[in-house]
Amino acid sequence: MSTVKESSDELNPAVAIPATEIAPRKRRSATDYLALAIATCGVGYFPIAPGTLGSLVGAGVYLSTWEWTYDLLEANASQRRLSLLYISTPLLASMLLLIVLVTMTGTWAASRAEKLLRKKDPSVVVIDEVAGQMIALLSVQFWLPAWWSVLSAFILFRVFVIWKPYPIRRLEAFESGLGIMADDVLAGIYAVIVNSLLISGYVLFTAR
């Protein structure tokens, strides 16, 4: 008997694998339902483009958290008459910490969801897209007049997730939740590098 390796990336076909590779779970506990809720992020069961919707969730979480953290730090800096440096450094640290927490929690949730659903990389699991998209958005500097940089970060991440340049596809071979998360994390890293280059080029060009 075999099961199917799914993917929330629209252009990647399903692959059959032995069902014995995924340990079955019988009765679902409250922890199981929590893992499924985290893994699917409320959009994983949507029939059309769940991966893209997962990226939108990641963008929403990142942007709302960034704005809330920035307002908090800016209020504190204004009271103490501190420069932008005292905002940008802890802001970046806060976003990196959030991404690490999402990635670690997502790895656990994806591993558990895989066992519950008895599918390798189930298409309903989109927490990997959430984490990867948040990484891609690290390139965006919101105090620059470059609204397009958010859109380009989104598009670049989706391109790398679907294209899967070396060695992204190989990371899928990692076991369980690590394999589910790793390829999208690397896609996010590729996206943040390319988008940073685009933003840097924009800044240099407009500074002339």
Would you list the SSEs in sequence order as H and E? Answer: EEHHHHHHH
- List how many beta strands DSSP finds: 2
Strand content: under 5%
Question: So how many helices?
Answer: 7
Mean pLDDT: 88
Read across the widest sheet, the strand sequence of neighbours is 1-2
Helix content: 55-70%
Radius of gyration: 19 Å
First-to-last CA distance: 65 Å
Shape: globular
**Low-pLDDT stretches:** none
For the biggest sheet, the summary is: 2 strands, antiparallel
Instruction: Output the structural class.
Output: mainly alpha
In brief:
This protein has 208 residues and is mainly alpha-helical.
Supply the key terms.
208 residues, mainly alpha, 2 strands
Characterization of the model:
The chain is mostly helical and 208 residues long. It is 65% helix and 4% strand. It is built from seven helices and two strands, in the order E-E-H-H-H-H-H-H-H. The protein has helices at residues 30-40, 50-80, 85-117, 127-136, 148-163, 168-171, 176-206; strands spanning 2-5, 15-18. It has a two-stranded antiparallel ribbon. Helix 2 packs antiparallel against helix 3 (85-117). The protein is globular. It starts with a strand and ends with a helix. 38% of the residues are buried. The mean pLDDT is 88.
